[in-house]
Amino acid sequence: MFDMMKIMGRVKEAQGKIKEVHARLAEMTIEGEAGGGMVRATVNGKRQVLSIDIDPVLLSEKDKEMIQDLSVAAVNNACEKAEELAKVELKKATEGMLPNIPGLDLGGMFGA
C-alpha cells in the first residue's frame, strides 16, 4: 500500500524540480538542420525558434520553395531534438522521486 502523504510530498518535490528543469531548458540551445546543413534552425529547450541560418548558395528566387521546405524541416528537426532533451532532463530531475507504477506517465501532468 502506498503512503499517500509521502507520495504527495514527492509529487510536490517533483513539481519543484520540473520547474527548475524548465528554467534550464529555456537557456539551452539546440540546432537542427536540413539539406545537408544548408539550412540550420536553432531553438531553445522550450521549442522556441531563436534563429534560422540559410547558406547563401540557396538564396535565389528560383529556390524560394525549396528554402521554405528546408526551413520547415530544419525547425522540425531542432524541435524534435529539443523535445528529446526535455524528456531526458525531466527524467534525470525526477528519477527515484515517484513510485514506478507501470503504465503511469506523469510527464503531461507537469507540462513536459
Write structural notes for this entry.
Helix 1 packs antiparallel against helix 2 (64-94). The protein has a domain at 25-96: Nucleoid-associated protein YbaB-like domain (Ybab, Chain: A). By secondary structure, the protein is of the alpha+beta class. The chain has helices spanning 4-27, 64-94, and strands spanning 29-34, 39-44, 49-54. It is rod-shaped. A hairpin with a 4-residue loop joins strand 2 and strand 3. The longest helix has 31 residues, at 64-94. The chain is 49% helix and 16% strand. Strands 1-2-3 form a 3-stranded antiparallel beta sheet. GO terms for molecular function: DNA binding.
What is the alpha-carbon Rg in Å?
19 Å
How many individual β-strands? 3
Nearest-integer average pLDDT: 80
State the CATH superfamily name of the domain at 25-96: Nucleoid-associated protein YbaB-like domain
Ends distance: 28 Å
* Percent helix: 40-55%
Strand content: 15-25%
The CATH architecture classification of the domain at 25-96 is 2-Layer Sandwich
Instruction: Give the strand order of the largest sheet, numbering strands 1, 2, ... along the chain.
Output: 1-2-3
Q: What sort of overall outline do the alpha carbons produce when their principal axes are compared?
A: rod-shaped
Structural class: alpha+beta
Q: Which runs of at least 5 residues are low in confidence (pLDDT < 50)? A: none
- Return the CATH topology of the domain at 25-96: Ybab, Chain: A
Class of the domain at 25-96 in CATH? Alpha Beta
The biggest sheet amounts to: 3 strands, antiparallel
Order of helices and strands: HEEEH
Number of helices: 2
